[in-house]
Automatic annotation (TrEMBL):
Keywords: Chloride, Ion transport, Membrane, Transmembrane, Transmembrane helix, Transport. Pfam families: Voltage_CLC (PF00654). The keyword Ion transport applies. The chain crosses the membrane at residues 26-47, 67-87, 164-189. It is found in: Membrane. This is Chloride channel protein. It is a multi-pass membrane protein. Coiled coil: none annotated. The keyword Iron does not apply.
Amino acid sequence: MSSHGTTSTHSTKHLLTSWFDLKFRLIVQAILVGLFSGSVVVLYRYLIEHAFDSTMSFYPYLVKHLWLIPIWLVVLGGGGYITGLIVKKQPMISGSGIPQVKGFLQSRVDMVWWKAILGKIVGGILSIGAGLSLGREGPSIQIGASVGQGFSRLFRKAKIEENFLVTCGASAGLAAAFNAPIAGVIFALEELHGNFSTLVMVSALASSLVADFVSKEFLDSSLFLISAVLLPSL
């Protein structure tokens, strides 16, 4: 065999080995990102649920003590002012957070991962704790994506790996928010990447399953209660 053929064979083997190493490394990292993202989102869910329950239980007390209403209005105003300051200083946390994640993956915007996490958690507690009708889907996705970005930045990963880990974190955030790992994978494929990729699917699935496990271990998994409807016999 010629030296050129030998060099070509070694180059192909090296390429295949590097590709398989990358896939294995991404799956392991996706599992770790799912663990961390699930834990942070579980903490976020716990805090906002207890903040909301505390506010709802306070209103009956407020009805019996009307003199507290002006004080409560001042408290609500203060909470709104603080939330406004947070969004002004960190505009990347405004809204649901999903457009910001998509923009980051398309290299159009940048996020400071730890500021995004803290801003979403504090803003969520103040807003939902005040009784506002807000969901946890978008914030959980951005929190998970920020955890993935933080993992990537701390371990100095390349941009392509960072995008994978951000996607895995977003998928894990959705899975932990609603105990829906399959929905997290579909969201990663359809909404964030817009195309089917086996590597994205496997990595996002690993991350989502771990996050779902963490969520079910620490929180009640019965989010949607469906009662049986008995139809009258004809």
